C-alpha cells in the first residue's frame, strides 16, 4: 500500500538509490556483487542475512543463466520474499476468553503507543479489550494508559503502586468477570542495559499462568527498528526470560534500518505480528511479506 511505502521511505531510499545504479550496469561481476553486499549491510540486513541473500542470488544467476544486472532485481525481490515469508504469521486472538497478550520491551521501544494501537485494532474487529497497566514503575506510563483508555472506552486496571504481577492478576479476574475478549497486559520496560534484570517480568508471566491456566496466549516483544542489529540480542534475551511468541517492530517509518527484519529472520526468527509505521493510532499494520518487500524494492 502507498501508506506502507511512505512509511518505509527511509529504508527504501537507502536501498533503491544504490540498487538502481547497480542494476543499470553492463554486466554481473564481482564488483557488482560486492556493492550489493554493502548496500544490504547499510540497510541493516546484517552479515548473516546478507550472505544468505547473495548466495541465493549467485545460485539463481547460475541456474537461470541470468546475464544482465537488470535480471537480478527480480531475483533479489524473490530472495527477500523467501527469507521473510516465515515471519508472516498474523496474530489470531481467538480460542480463549479472555485471550491474554503480555507485552514486553525496553523503555522507549514504543510499548505504550503500540498497546493503544493494538486496543484499537481489536476493537475494530468487534472485540472487547481490557488493559492491565502492569508498568507500575513509571507513573507516567500508567497515567498515559489510563487517559488513553478513558478516551477510547477501554477499561484500564491500574494500581497506584505495588506489584506489577498483582495488577495483571486483578486484570485477568476482572476480564473473566466481564467476559472481555482480549487482555493487553503491559509490563515494566527495561533499560537496554538492564536486560539481565528480567526476573520481574518472568514473574508476571508466571502469575498470568496462575490466574488463567492457559495463558498468556501471546507474549509480544516490542522492538524499535532503530536499534538495528541489537534487535537480535534483545529478542534472544527476552525469549530466554519469558518465551517470546511474536514481535511488534516499531518506528520503521523513522529509520533506514528496515533490513533488520532480514536479520531477525535468519538469526532469531519469531512471527512479526505487527509493524509500526508512524505515531498515529492507525499506524500499526499486520506484517505481510509481499507488501513489505514491494514497499522496499518495488
Ligand atoms: P515505551 O517507553 O516503550 O512505552 O514507548 P512509548 O510508547 O512511550 O513511545 C516512545 C516514543 O516513540 C513516542 O514518542 C512514540 O510516539 C514513538 N513511537 C512509537 N511507535 C512509533 C512508530 O511506529 N513510529 C514513530 N515514528 N514513532 C513511534
UniProtKB/TrEMBL annotation:
Gene3D superfamilies: P-loop containing nucleotide triphosphate hydrolases, Signal recognition particle SRP54, nucleotide-binding domain
Enzyme Commission number(s) from the entry: 3.6.5.4
Binding site for GTP: 105-112, 186-190, 250-253
Domain SRP54-type proteins GTP-binding: 271-284
Membrane topology note: Peripheral membrane protein
Domain of life, source organism: Bacteria
Any Pfam family the entry gives: SRP54
Biological processes, Gene Ontology terms: SRP-dependent cotranslational protein targeting to membrane
GO cellular component, one term: plasma membrane
The UniProt record lists the keyword Lyase: no
Alphabetical keyword list: Cell membrane, Cytoplasm, GTP-binding, Hydrolase, Membrane, Nucleotide-binding, Receptor
PANTHER family assigned to the protein according to its UniProt record, in alphabetical order: SIGNAL RECOGNITION PARTICLE RECEPTOR SUBUNIT ALPHA
Family the entry assigns: Belongs to the GTP-binding SRP family. FtsY subfamily.
Protein name per UniProt: Signal recognition particle receptor FtsY
Organism for this UniProt entry: Sulfuritalea hydrogenivorans sk43H
Lineage, uppermost ranks: Bacteria, Pseudomonadati, Pseudomonadota, Betaproteobacteria, Nitrosomonadales
